[in-house]
Amino acid sequence: MTAAREQRRLTALHEYELLDMPAGDELEAVVRVAAQVAGVPFGTLNLIDENRQCQLTTTGFAGSDSARSDSMCAVRFETGQVTYLPDASLDLAYAFNPWVTGLLGKVRFYFSAPLVTPQGYALGSLCVFDEKRHELTDQQIDRLRDLAQVLLGLFECRRQARLNAELAAEVRQQHDELERAHAERAATIVELRRSNHELEQFAGVVSHDLAAPLTVVHGYLELLEEGVRGKDEQSEQWIGSAVRAVGRMHRLITSLLSYARAGHAPLRAERTDLGEITEQALTDLRAHLDGATVAVSPELPEVEADPTLLRQLLQNLLGNALKYRRPNRPCRVEVSATPDGDQWRVAVADNGVGIPPAQRERVFEMFAQVDPASGQGYGVGLSTCERIVDRHGGRIAATETPGGGTTVVFTLPARKLLPSRPS
Fold first, then answer.
1. What is the pLDDT at residue 35?
2. For the chain, which end, N or C, has fewer CB atoms within 10 Å of the first or last residue's CB respectively?
3. Are the C-beta atoms of residues 114 and 93 closer than 8 Å to each other?
4. How far, rounded to the nearest angstrom, does the alpha carbon of residue 285 sit from its chain's CA centroid?
5. Which long-range contacts (CB under 8 A, 24 or more apart) does 14-21 make?
6. How many C-beta atoms surround the C-beta of residue 205 within 10 A?
7. Tens digits of residue pLDDT in 82-129
């Protein structure tokens, strides 16, 4: 390999920011499953940098870093081809390696599947081995190749998630700067809004592209799950953990896409029956009612609004009311509206856990959560609600329900809206 190509390979490796970082449950699960598929006690995920082999996660033994010159995986991983040796001591390229001779290990059976990026750069390998001779079937070799691709998909998920978080932070920073500058530099607002719109469009594109590797990962996991179902309970559990992690990421992507679409989709305002839209939102949420009582005022008016965005708004607010209920009393939600000049004040009130006064403004910020440790939601829903209301020229706020709980009040116009541009 030329020095220039090796430098590009190292750049690709460092872009994933995996070296010397915790592997995480998903990567650990894949390595354990690989050892199970091969029918051997030992497995490792190796990354090769300038001077060393980093065993990012292992199964069957305690991993550690070693010199790249001592690495078995470093011998051929750059070829991009799997290495399958029933007895490594019989191969001259490996017979005198310290992992074979007993200095670092007593490897006999050895299988290594290189982790090659779509651009053709080998980052390391998925390796399984044993201290005695062992053979694999063609089917086992194919599944191990599949698992190497799963690892690459997980690498890309982590990289894209990190980039998306950085992008979201940039969007929030742009928004904050816009608000601070509004009073002092009114003339710059139009340009800053354009900049924010481009960033939000980019966030939507990134979120959409992130779904592609997740689909690949989920597909391989389903294949693995079918292969071990009823045969290996532990492997089923490991695969289940990986499937749930993919599901969490997919739900976050869906939330981010909803937020992005609420900001730049065309606003098509028309006379809309608020009661009918509320019933449609409740129909979407029927699986989450779970004994809750939802009282919808029969006097809900017609408003001038985009019915699609209004349905999304009500579905988010009703969904939160049903989700954050108190365990010690039946859940009750009320939807009502009162006239206020040329607009309507719509209220969604619940008797749930409530929002502390100090956080009632912050909850509308992107990724803000009252209780992050609860693992419920991603802090995107109320941000999306605020965006929809703002595009209709209204305001939204959270207050306390008498007797405990949260009431979210937002305003909608009673008359025809002027044309609105995406925010």
1. 96
2. N
3. no
4. 23
5. 14/49, 15/159, 16/123, 16/155, 16/158, 16/159, 17/158, 17/159, 17/162, 18/47, 18/56, 18/155, 18/158, 19/47, 19/49, 19/54, 19/56, 20/54, 21/56
6. 13
7. 999 999 999 999 999 999 999 999 999 999 999 999 899 999 999 999
